[in-house]
Amino acid sequence: MEFECTRFKAEYPIFYKVDDNDSNVAPTYKFLKSSKYGLFGDGPKWNFTKFLVDRNGNIVDRYAPTTSPKNIEKDVKKLLGIQK
């Protein structure tokens, strides 16, 4: 967590490290990446791939690792029904 916060300026909750691309993949991550494919298939291009999930557990969108959480704000507000 210290690495992500200092090196990448992560200002959002960071949980714990999970396996994402091998036989021990975490069940939640397996569901996320199989539900919304990225540009190059289901495997993440790099750390910090982001998923937007609605209140019913449906995957709404998937964002590249380089997408800033600030750039996702409009999509989150739309999903919550918050007008700007």
UniProtKB/TrEMBL annotation:
Keywords: Oxidoreductase, Peroxidase. GO terms for molecular function: peroxidase activity. Belongs to the glutathione peroxidase family. This is Probable phospholipid hydroperoxide glutathione peroxidase.
